[in-house]
Amino acid sequence: MAERLSNREGIKGMANPTRYGIERVAYWLQRLTGLGLLAYLIGHIYETSTIVNGKIAWDKMLEFTQTPQGHIFLTLVIGMCVFHTANGIRVMLGHGGIGVGKPGQPEYPYKAASLNYKQRLCIWVSIALAALAMMYGASVLFGD
Amino acid sequence: MAVVAAPKPSEESNAKTTNQPNTITLRIARSNPSEGQESAFSEFQIPVQKWTTVLEAILYVKQNLDHSVAVRYSCRQASCGSCGMKINGRPALACYTKISELNSNIITVEPMNNFPIIRDLAVDFKQLIANHKKMKPFIIREDSEVTSESKEFIQTPQDLEKFLQFSYCIKCGLCNSACPTMATDTSFIGPQGLAQAYRYVADNRDKGKDDRLKIIDDSHGIWRCHFAGSCSHVCPKGVDPAMAIQLLRGYLLGFKK
Ligand code: HEM
Ligand code: SF4
Ligand code: FES
């Protein structure tokens, strides 16, 4: 009710990356990969802690990483890791005011200087690096 | 002397056919929350020319089809900041958006997100104005009056450029309605307010930097910005709030003095 009265977009609007250019897609991917990595970290701690239940439980866990599903999962983790790190560096520098353009007289059609080609290039490079790392990772994982 | 030739009859008829009014469907979201009336769309057929703006189409409805549509507007020239709304899913000024540039025969207008609805397309700006005021949007200094002993506050063109674009904000609220943090955080200052904080911090006549940095260094302040850039995507005046916020954060992070 309150949500409707205040007309806030809510989580659905926050997580909709389709309307405001590649920068919003990067924001969305950074969140998604951040949460994905967090989930992976927790899962990873759980997985490695199975060793306290003895060798059999540990080997069972390891077996999962040897299945095709396990390979796909690890490939995704590689991609998330690379994108999150590369884009995270862009975002951290941006947050300090680096690479976000210089104030000046705005000229029609008022293209925002902070949404500049360097930012967009860094986003695309982050995506490309993630894709390359995933391809390499998949080739190693599946190629034995 | 310039000679303006009258169009030949053949050219005139030609012009007529190309300027033939097109008919579009205008869908207006109607609601009246204070009366408990849920949002529903009213549809209207509107004749438009290639220069017709979305605001003109809405005013056509008010003049000819249904005068009860609630919409706020004033200047009709992207100066007053009144007519922000969601047009085909994106926040924009109705007076600054031509129907022809939307490339669609169906135009849907809805009230801006992240602002409470008053009625139909009119939304409540209390929060935006309150946050704007919180940023102390005025020059702060002891000797604010020029006396016979003091000199004018000298500003070079370079000094001016540091804040000029941010002073073009018309408080339309489009940035706040596009912002992903604003979508979920009801207490966030928002890109409009934060950009105004920077506008004064960057002004070399101003001495209120420490005051303002304290105000924005808050759990619902500047740290909630994730530099998604959506504010700058929709700003109709080239203010670029995303840049202002990152430059402002540069001071807090010690990247800048
Ligand atoms: C060197 C590696 C990393 C860098 C450079 C990095 C950088 C960043 C940055 C800059 C943000 C903030 C983005 C924003 O303001 O929207 C962020 C968010 C986040 N990161 Fe990382 N990160 C790294 C590794 C990790 C790891 C290993 C994890 C998981 C365990 C992780 C989990 C998260 C989460 C959950 C968020 C919050 C997402 C959000 O609020 O949008 N990060 N990271
Ligand atoms: S910064 Fe731009 S979008 Fe935001 S209120 Fe000011 S003029 Fe409107
Ligand atoms: S009517 Fe003034 S900005 Fe559109």
From TrEMBL, chain A:
TM spans (from-to): 121-142
Zinc in keyword set: no
GO MF term (any one): metal ion binding
Gene3D superfamilies on file: Fumarate reductase/succinate dehydrogenase, transmembrane subunit (1.20.1300.10)
Subcellular location: Membrane
Keywords: Heme, Iron, Membrane, Metal-binding, Transmembrane, Transmembrane helix
Database matches in PANTHER family: SUCCINATE DEHYDROGENASE 2 MEMBRANE SUBUNIT SDHC (PTHR41910), SUCCINATE DEHYDROGENASE HYDROPHOBIC MEMBRANE ANCHOR SUBUNIT (PTHR41910:SF1)
Main location: membrane
Pfam families hit by this protein: Sdh_cyt
Domain of life from the UniProt record: Archaea
InterPro entries in the cross-refs: SdhC_prok, SQR/QFR_C/D, SuccDH_FuR_B_TM-su
One Gene Ontology cellular component: membrane
Full protein name: Succinate dehydrogenase, subunit D
